[in-house]
């Protein structure tokens, strides 16, 4: 087995019972899988629905939970109602994660579970992650980080365990499509969601649609870059995006990069 897997199992075996913050992505799926295989019914996976969490992700989370066999609970969350979230300053993720982890801690207490686990890994330390402060404040544990696992390690372990989503592209909530300082509202979230749904329907795998008011800036993985220069495909994208309310549709020549909007944080 991949290096670090045994350490991850040891960490989780030392946990009495837990609630897993479960998005259905690669990281939280591995946590839920190892926790359920190790602790059995003393684990529950919890997914929070919200305007920033698209339906396809919820459907996938449900599917992954069924495959694992872990009990799965869906709760409601509405980040737009959280004070400080919509104005979208650099601490936006702190407010969101504090709300989520507070709910999960409360749920854990009500149901008699001891710990709350999230999917933070070693690579996350290299990016701007104000949500980590909320996790520390509320005592949320991060077994992948504790085990020193990188994203590549997690994918390798997941593949070895036969987890189908081991190669799933990274995904972040829709609020990450808005530059800091630009207010996040329902109409903007619907625009972004519609635009990304359309890109997905065309078969694109790794991409983001960044929301700059009347302009949609598309970041796409370099191995799919050539598709954007197919006039038929680009024409469909422009047509659909304008139907959604964008006036301009542009391609970012740097391509997709993780947390690109955090570059302004490091630039200051």
Cα Rg: 19 Å
Write down the overall mean pLDDT: 92
The CATH superfamily label of the largest domain reads HUPs
Secondary structure: helix percent: 40-55%
What is the CATH domain class of the largest domain? Alpha Beta
Catalogue the unreliable spans. Answer: none
Task: Tell me the strand order in the biggest sheet.
Answer: 3-2-1-4
Q: What is the domain tally?
A: 2
Summarize the structure.
The protein is α/β, with parallel strands linked by helices.
Features:
268 residues; alpha/beta; Rossmann fold; GMP Synthetase, Chain A, domain 3; 4-stranded parallel sheet; 3-stranded mixed sheet; 10 helices; 7 strands; 13% strand
Describe this structure in words.
This protein is of the alpha/beta class. The chain has two domains: 163 residues, HUPs (Rossmann fold, 3-Layer(aba) Sandwich), CATH 3.40.50; 94 residues, GMP Synthetase, Chain A, domain 3, CATH 3.30.300. 42% of the residues lie in helices and 13% in strands. The chain has ten helices and seven strands. It has a four-stranded parallel sheet, sandwiched between helices. Strands 5-6-7 form a three-stranded mixed sheet, with helices on one face. The protein starts with a helix and ends with a helix. The mean pLDDT is 92.
């Amino acid at each position: 087995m991949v290096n670090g897997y045994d350490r991850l199992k040891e960490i989780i075996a030392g946990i009495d019972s837990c609630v897993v913050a479960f998005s259905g992505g690669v990281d939280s799926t591995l946590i839920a899988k190892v926790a359920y295989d190790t602790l059995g019914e003393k684990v529950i996976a919890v997914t929070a629905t919200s305007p920033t969490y698209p339906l396809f992700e919820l459907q996938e989370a449900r599917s992954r939970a069924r495959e694992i066999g872990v009990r799965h609970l869906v709760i409601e969350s509405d980040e737009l109602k959280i004070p400080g979230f919509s104005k979208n300053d650099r601490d936006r993720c702190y407010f969101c994660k504090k709300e989520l982890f507070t709910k999960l801690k409360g749920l854990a207490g009500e149901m008699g579970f001891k710990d709350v686990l999230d999917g933070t890994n070693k690579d996350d330390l290299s990016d701007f992650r104000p949500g980590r402060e909320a996790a520390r404040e509320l005592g949320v544990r991060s077994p992948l980080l504790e085990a020193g696992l990188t994203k590549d390690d997690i994918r390798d372990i997941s593949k070895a365990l036969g987890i189908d989503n081991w190669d799933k592209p990274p995904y972040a909530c829709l609020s990450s499509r808005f530059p800091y300082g630009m207010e996040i509202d329902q109409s903007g979230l619907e625009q972004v969601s519609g635009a990304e749904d359309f890109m997905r329907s065309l078969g694109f795998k790794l991409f983001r649609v960044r929301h700059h008011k009347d302009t949609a800036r598309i970041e796409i993985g370099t191995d799919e870059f050539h598709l954007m220069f197919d006039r038929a495909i680009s024409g469909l994208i422009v047509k659909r995006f304008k139907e959604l309310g964008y006036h301009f549709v542009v391609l970012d020549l740097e391509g997709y990069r993780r947390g690109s909007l955090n570059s302004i944080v490091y630039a200051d």
